[in-house]
């Protein structure tokens, strides 16, 4: 996740963060199941108060874009209709398994393309 806060912007920092997470999710660069940085870590990285990040995360959760799993952290939720959500969850499971097996992303995509073409 790449987020940039513009301190000169009239838009509050929490809203800049919230909007960028929404955009990255819609663009697909933040896939379902992606774990977000902790509030403290992201606040430190962005040079903002932890309350700023916590507010953005609360609003994202209220909008149904992320879910917080207690001490396990905050994650991007699957979006769309139930079928799309199931596909996003399957893609995340595949990606996690591929990474554990040490397969390169390029090879994993080749396997998926071959399976889809079969």
UniProtKB/TrEMBL annotation:
Residues 11-79 form the HTH gntR-type domain. Pfam families: GntR. Keywords: DNA-binding, Transcription, Transcription regulation. One of its GO terms (molecular function) is DNA binding. PANTHER family: HTH-TYPE TRANSCRIPTIONAL REPRESSOR YTRA (PTHR38445:SF9). InterPro entries: Tscrpt_reg_HTH_GntR, WH-like_DNA-bd_sf, WH_DNA-bd_sf. Coiled coil: none annotated. This is HTH gntR-type domain-containing protein. CDD domains: WHTH_GntR. It comes from Arenivirga flava. The lineage of its organism: Bacteria, Bacillati, Actinomycetota, Actinomycetes, Micrococcales.
């Amino acid at each position: 996740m790449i987020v940039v806060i513009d301190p000169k912007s009239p838009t509050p920092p929490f809203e800049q963060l919230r909007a960028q997470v929404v955009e990255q999710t819609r663009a697909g660069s933040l896939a379902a199941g992606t774990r977000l940085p902790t509030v403290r870590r992201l606040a430190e990285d962005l040079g903002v108060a932890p309350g700023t990040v916590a507010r953005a995360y609360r609003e994202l959760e209220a909008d149904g874009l992320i879910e917080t799993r207690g001490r396990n952290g905050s994650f991007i939720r699957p979006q769309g209709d139930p079928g799309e959500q199931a596909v996003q969850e399957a893609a995340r499971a595949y990606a996690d398994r591929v990474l554990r097996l040490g397969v390169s992303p390029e090879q994993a995509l080749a396997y998926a393309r071959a399976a889809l073409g079969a």
